[in-house]
Each structure stands twice: as structure tokens, then as C-alpha cells.
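In keeping with the milestone schedule agreed at the kick-off meeting, the structural modelling team has produced records for the first pair of proteins. Each record is given below as a sequence line and a C-alpha cell line. The laboratory manager (R.T.) confirmed that both were archived under the project's standard naming scheme.
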Amino acid sequence: MKIKLINIRIFIFILFFLTVNITYSQCAMCKSSVESNAKIEVTNRAQGLNYGILYLMTIPYILFGTLGYFWYKQSKKSKAERQKIDSILKKVSQ
């Protein structure tokens, strides 16, 4: 179980560092888009771009928060079941 957890952590660590360059390059594209639109004085596009960035930023938090909640709930449920089985086994062995 520990080896599997370590493998998952290593995979996430590598995945994180592989995606940093991709996300960094997108920031430069957004910046140039806003700068070019600022010269034309179009504020709706810049505001729309900011809302889009906020939308894209919140999706991972919602996703991981939901997964974390269900993981916690399942962990708590399995712990209660294990304690119940342990108490039954103690009663039977006495």
C-alpha cells in the first residue's frame, strides 16, 4: 500500500512539473491579448478574460474538494466498519 502511495506521489510530482511550462506560456498569451485590447480601450474583453481565468481557476478546486470530501467520507465509513468487526471478533474470542 505504501509503495502504491509513493508511486502516485511521484506521478503527481512529475505531472506537475511537466505542466508548468504549458500554463506559464498561456499567461503570456493572455497578457499580450489584454495589452493589445487596452490600446483600443476595449474593457469588456479584458473583463471577460479575467472572468474566464477565474472560472478556469475554480474548477480544479471544486473537483479536488469534491473528491476529497468523498474520500474522507469513505475513509470514515470503512474505519467504523473495521472497528465494528474488531469488536465482534473480540466478543467471539472471549
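The second protein of the pair:
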Amino acid sequence: MNFNWLTDIGLTHYLTVSVVIFSLGIAVILAKRNAIAILMGIELLLNAACLNFVAFSHFGNGAQSGQVVAVFIIVIAAAEAAVALAIIVCVYRMFNLIAVDQIAKMKE
């Protein structure tokens, strides 16, 4: 079998995967009312941005700046997830729910 098509992956392929991941993240954020699911959607958005930075860095001038920015995004995403999960746990302990729309109603 001839597998030459496997080595012909270009920038368009990476951008297409990134658009799909970004679209799934937006869909999760808009469709779900669960705070943890919304957090997962935000993580998908950040991962799509990381993929774009790395792809443009690889197919651009070859500089390592895209990888450096991607590492910073991953570190920021980890810190954001830790803080958000801590807030979600505190809200769950206080109100015994994690549905975002119900928490907003309880604030009133």
C-alpha cells in the first residue's frame, strides 16, 4: 500500500481541525447549563488556539514563538481550571447544585 498521503499534511489540515475543535467548544458553552461542562468548552477553545499557534509557527518562518505561546496558554488553562473547579466546589457546597442558570437565580 502507498501511504504517501499521510505525509502531505499541511497548514489547511491543522486549521480545519482547529476550527472543528473551536466549534465544538462554542457548542458546548452555548448548549450546556452545567458549570463543569462550560469549563470543558472553554478548555476546548484554548486547545484550538494552541493548535493554531503551533501550526502557524511550524509552517511559518520556523521560529519557536508559537510553541512558547502554546505553553503559556496551557499553563494559564491549568490555573484557570484549578480556580474554576475550586469555585464550583464552593458553590456546590453552599447551594448543592452546579447548574449555572439556577445559581444566577439564587443570587437574586
